[in-house]
Amino acid sequence: MFRRDTDTGEEIAFRVTTPQGNTVISGYSEDFWRQTPGAEVEEVRGHSQPDGFVVERTVA
Fold first, then answer.
1. 32 φ/ψ angles, rounded to the nearest 5 degrees
2. Strand ranges in 18-58 using DSSP code E only, listed in sequence order
3. pLDDT for residue 36
4. Tens digit of pLDDT per residue, the chain (60 long)?
């Protein structure tokens, strides 16, 4: 579901905060979320587990 960085092996995701204040970890493209008015988007790296995505770091 998530793209993988070929150099580090990390999975690439986006942490999205919706205008309503909900936080979502998504594999959809950053451009998709930037088109949502009021959404805040930041790229994160980590790995998937059966119960969700573990964010290990935020990409600045």
1. -60, -50
2. 23-26, 40-49, 52-58
3. 87
4. 799 999 999 999 999 999 999 999 999 888 888 898 999 999 999 999 999 999 999 997
Structure tokens at 6: 């070929």
What's the longest Cα–Cα distance across the chain? 36
Distances (CA, A) of 52 to 2, 25, 28, 48: 12, 9, 15, 6
The token duo for 5 is: 């960085």
Report d(CA 32, CA 36) in Å as an integer: 7
SS3 31: helix
User: In what helix (H) or strand (E) does residue 16 lie, and over which residues does it extend?
Assistant: strand 11-17
* Pair 31, 58: CB distance under 8 Å: no
